[in-house]
UniProtKB/TrEMBL annotation:
Name of the protein described by the UniProt record: Prepilin peptidase
Stretches assigned to the Prepilin peptidase A24 N-terminal domain: 9-89
Pfam families in UniProt: A24_N_bact (PF06750)
Any one GO molecular-function label of the UniProt entry: aspartic-type endopeptidase activity
An example Gene Ontology CC term for this record: plasma membrane
Alphabetized UniProt keyword annotations: Membrane, Transmembrane, Transmembrane helix
Stored InterPro entries: Prepilin_pept_A24_N, Prepilin_peptidase/N-MTase
Entry's transmembrane regions: 6-25, 79-103, 123-146, 167-195, 207-225
GO term, biological process aspect, one: signal peptide processing
Amino acid sequence: MIMSLFAFILGSSLASFLCVVVTRLKRNESIIFPQSHCDNCQTVLHTWELIPVLSYITLRGKCSNCSAKIPKIGFIAEISLGTLFILATHAVSPISAAIIFTWLTLLTLEDLSDQQLYQWETLGFMITASFISPNPFVFIGFIWTLSLIITRINYRERFIGNADIEIVLAFFLIVGNLTTLIIIFIACILALLFLCCLKNYRYKLPFIPFLSIAFIITTTALNIFSEQNFMYKKSIEIISRCFSW
Ligand SMILES: [Zn+2]
């Protein structure tokens, strides 16, 4: 229970920080300075107003000074990453699971913000996936080569966003071929359902949120992060390798 609470606080605090990172990067502002403030009246937030989840509920989603609405997305991100961190505590490799969930939250927030992802974000996710990947180096090299070729072709033709391609390829590294195909399928279904529900949706659809949700649904349903799977095998592999040295 205490472990879950700690995980939730850690996850929601991290999500709160990621929201600040995404907002400030878009404005070319420093991530550290100035202190957190209301975007409308510029009032610096009190310490208690920085507490994730609880501050939003206490303030009823409004600034304590000017009553301007606080974006709901931050609250949703805090609850989501907090819950995902609780989920990660049940994984054989909680740290790997938590890192993947954090990356996915950052990428989702970026995509929802303006669909312009920075190169370091997608590359960082692919590098993380390569480190976590239980696959042999040949496969990892193959995926990176494939990424270079596809993104180069797509750069000219613009079939879909390059970030979507890199994230899907990172999924191949983390969960393997079949699971990734299931994730893509579920993400497409979710996106279609979204479009059906919002018939007046006229904007370009950000696809990374659907990929992230599909990734979480699939890995949870298939128990990817639990004992019978790769995280477990990977840990055993690393331990046995250490002993063989
Ligand atoms: Zn305000």
